[in-house]
Design goal:
Chain lengths: ~290, ~190
């Protein structure tokens, strides 16, 4: 009924393609960031960059329309939530202003100089997200700013509301941003106002939930507390993220989990799955180094 | 499918345009809180009209290009999409279906297979990964939207591939319909 030659050829094609996929996966996981496949990835990104930018511009009106429609449906719920948040923030603002004034006076007394805002640590480059994966499993986005805009590898990236990730690949006109929800991400953080520190790690598969691990014992953390960057990473000595970039809000504190695993759950401030614009903090590492040397 | 330079050019263009439109165009379009994923639909359509070999080859190429352009784990998407393309193609070859609404279940099956496959591969590759309600919700919405958009996407791919197809399944359906047409005196079954 079936030609044996055709059957053999069909099975051979399937076998070769599956074997090639497995080989690619093995090589990709086995090599470092400067390896062959990573190089091919960077090259492909650079080649497709103009095409992606063009398609992104063409589809922008449709995208804006669907966002607008979605916003209309969510406006009532969001308005109620924001009013509640404004009430809370008014109280926190008054406390923060008092604390800032006290801190400035104390810094003046001991002759300590420090930037109070993370944006002061470097230059901000605004960029648009031009492509991203549609699934929850991948945490990379491509932005339309690259080395020609002054963006470097490891530059921190912030989105409306908080920390989004860091630049991991740069070409002339675009960059790949690895989000804080990527499995490789570890961000050293502090819980405010308690001040206790820990490491923010992703809960892979759930971008709306992150884990603050390795919290110091005796920490007094409550639901709603803010989590900000503490100014150094867990894997490198140099600071990648400047101090005080908001990361998220504590959403779940379970006494058992806190005691046993030194862990609480947080929700990122930045809407990492829907963000359209980001800001890259360029030059922060150099400035941090300069401050240390000084 | 007849493998000619024209067929290969068409397939290459389909792969490149699908990946670029999905990565840069569709990513910002949210409907009912979810996003359409064109890739499994296109792979399913090529496989259904072109057969298992064409389906597997286009699945592999689309997956590889997605992984390379989006900075994903190279090989993961191509592994899943190769399987999706091959099995949809085999279904088409064995059953030779010609129903007009066939793209709807085939599109849903291709999308479902792709989403489940991607989830399994991601859970195997990622350390300490979990399957959240959000992931389920996203999968359901993508499946729903892809099922809705299957008909136009399959129709477009069929239109592009038609000149290079060995035989068009809809032509066969039309021939079958002609065979049972009415006879010379207007009564069905009395044809001479």
């Amino acid at each position: 009924m079936y030609d044996k030659k055709v059957v053999r050829r069909r099975r051979a094609v399937l076998g070769v393609l599956v074997a090639a996929s497995l080989l690619l996966l093995t090589v990709y996981f086995g090599e470092n960031g400067g390896g062959f496949l990573h190089g091919v990835q960077r090259g492909t990104s650079a080649v497709f960059s103009p095409l992606e930018k063009g398609v992104s511009v063409v589809f922008r009106p449709i995208s804006n329309f669907t966002h607008w429609t979605g916003d209309v449906f969510h406006a009532k719920k969001e308005n109620k939530q924001l009013k509640k948040e404004v009430q809370q923030l008014r109280g926190q603002l008054a406390q923060a202003q008092t604390a800032e004034r006290d801190a400035a006076e104390l810094r003046g007394l001991v002759g300590l100089q420090r930037t109070s805002n993370f944006a002061d640590a470097g230059k901000l480059v605004t960029a648009r997200v031009i492509s991203r994966s549609p699934t929850v499993w991948y945490s990379n986005v491509i932005i339309n700013a690259g080395s020609s805009d002054g963006v470097h590898v490891n530059d921190p990236v912030v989105a409306a509301g908080g920390l989004a990730g860091k630049v991991t690949q740069v070409t002339g006109g675009q960059s790949t941003v690895t989000l804080i929800t990527d499995q490789s991400s570890n961000v050293s953080a502090q819980v405010m106002p308690d001040g206790s520190s820990g490491i923010v790690r992703p809960d892979v598969g759930d971008p709306n939930n992150m884990l603050l691990d390795y919290i110091q014992s005796g920490a007094k953390i409550a639901k709603g507390d803010s989590v900000v960057t503490s100014g150094f990473t867990s894997s490198k000595l140099d600071s990648i993220f400047p101090r005080a970039i908001p990361i998220g809000r504590v959403t779940k504190v379970s006494p058992g989990e806190l005691d046993q695993y030194s862990r609480v759950h947080i929700q990122p401030y930045a809407d990492l799955r829907r963000m359209d614009y980001v800001q890259v903090l360029t030059g922060t590492i150099d400035q941090a180094r300069a401050q240390v040397i000084k | 499918m007849i493998v000619t330079p024209a067929a290969i050019v068409r397939l290459v263009l389909i792969v490149i345009l699908t990946v670029v439109i999905q990565a840069a165009g569709m990513q910002g379009i949210t409907l009912l809180g979810g996003t359409i994923d064109l890739v499994p639909l296109v792979v399913g359509a090529v496989a259904l009209w072109g057969g298992a070999v064409a389906g597997a080859a286009v699945g592999f190429s689309c997956g590889l290009l997605i992984d390379l352009t989006l900075g994903q784990d190279v090989g993961s998407s191509s592994l899943v999409l190769t399987a999706v393309g091959y099995f949809v193609g085999r279904y088409g070859e064995l059953n030779e279906p010609a129903h007009g609404l066939l793209p709807v279940p085939v599109g849903a099956a291709a999308t479902g297979g792709y989403l489940v496959g991607t989830t399994v591969v991601s859970l195997m590759l990622a350390f300490d990964a979990s399957l959240s309600i959000l992931a389920f919700r996203d999968m359901f919405l993508t499946l729903l939207l892809n099922t809705i958009f299957a008909l136009p996407v399959f129709a477009l791919i069929r239109r592009i591939l038609r000149p290079v197809l060995a035989r068009d399944p809809y032509d066969r359906r039309r021939r079958r319909a002609t065979a049972i047409e009415s006879g010379p005196i207007g009564l069905r079954g009395l044809g001479m």
